[in-house]
Design goal:
Length: 108
């Protein structure tokens, strides 16, 4: 699994460099790539920026939803199985320009 993730990462980097994939699409792919991982093993900079856990709640299905501040209007969520601590779902909210992996040119 780790080898496949690294291979996926290399493919994504090459696509980014070639300009075929937008930074927002890359953000979404990397976010989805966390599904199946243990939430306790995800570093706070996994998406390219340091993120902060801002809320955690129990969902009606019994899973936990962690809410993370990313940047600007972008917030992302991990749905976690409380027994295994495995991420079973992800989602995000915010403007497309804020939910990107690389910093925007106007913020450099």
């Amino acid at each position: 699994m780790l080898i496949l993730k690294r291979l996926f990462g290399l493919v994504m980097v090459s696509l980014i460099v070639s300009g075929c994939v937008s930074r927002h699409e890359t953000f979404k792919e990397i976010l989805r790539d966390n599904i199946g991982d243990n939430v306790d093993n995800i570093p706070p900079y996994a998406l390219g920026r340091i993120t902060a856990l801002i809320d955690s709640k129990v969902l009606p299905n019994g899973n936990i939803e962690n809410k993370y501040k990313y940047g600007g209007t972008c917030i992302y969520f991990f749905e976690i199985d409380p027994k295994t601590r495995i991420i079973v779902g992800v989602r995000f909210e915010g403007k497309e320009r804020d939910c990107v992996v690389a910093p925007r040119e106007d913020s450099l």
